[in-house]
Amino acid sequence: MSQTYTEQNPPINPNDGGFKGYHNYYTREEFFQRDPAKGEIHLRDGQRAAAVSEDFINGLHHGLEEDVGDASNLIMYKCGFEWGLQDMTRFNNRMRHEFGGGKLDVWQMNPGFVFETWWWPLTVEGWGAWTLDLSFKAKEISFVEIRNSAVAYSMEQIGKPVCHLYAGMFAGVMSFFERTERQCIEVQCYAMGNDCCKFMVGPPKQVNAAEFWHQEGATAEDIRGKLT
Q: How far is CA 154 from the centre of its chain?
């Protein structure tokens, strides 16, 4: 059974992020620091992590939906949004000391480099492979494609988007990076029978329009065409 790792606590060393002189991670043995005596898992920067199964993710979503109905989608989105904000705050500290000489923040660096560096640990942790399209930034819109979504792959084919945690996380990350409000909608999902999940991130007005078109039956490509 595959496992996904989730981050829990602030880093132990906020000064250099624990990444000084060590830029890339290619194996779980390098990336995760395990303490069998305490039953704890930490990332290299001291961030606490937890290993969870697909059954756990599935049970969390179904249990929340049974308790609060459709409001569960908003709850997961808000959890993702807060996670994105906090993770980018931590990540900015890491990048400032690892690549910025202690002076440059992430929004002063190349966006493509920043986001690929940010997502790589999440790939190692089991959250899937991503493709980020920043070619429409002039219109304040970004598109994200996720393959092997930890959420969607743990759920049955239910004919509707389920990756609200991801959508919230991307909204939080972009809100931090662009220093203005950003929202996100999943316009295609593996749980709908598609081969991958697709998201659109942008200002509330554009996201609301995309949500309306999606509810009217527009595909991800239809929405992309309308907005770009």
A: 16
For residues 50 and 145, the answer to whether their CB atoms sit within 8 Å is: no
**Superfamily of domain 56-227 in the CATH hierarchy:** Trafficking protein particle complex subunit 3 (3.30.1380.20)
Q: What is the pTM of this model?
A: 0.86
Give CA separation, 142 vs 37, 117, 158, in Å.
44, 17, 26
User: For residue 184, how many other CB atoms are within 10 A of its CB?
Assistant: 29
Contact in structure between 130 and 123 (CB atoms under 8 Å): yes
Give the pLDDT score at 124: 82
Q: At what angle do helices 54-68 and 71-98 cross, to 10 degrees?
A: 130
Residue ranges of domains in the chain: 56-227
pLDDT digits (tens, 9 = 90+) for 138-179: 889 999 999 999 999 998 788 889 999 999 999 999 999 999
φ, ψ at 49 (rounded to 5°): -130, 160
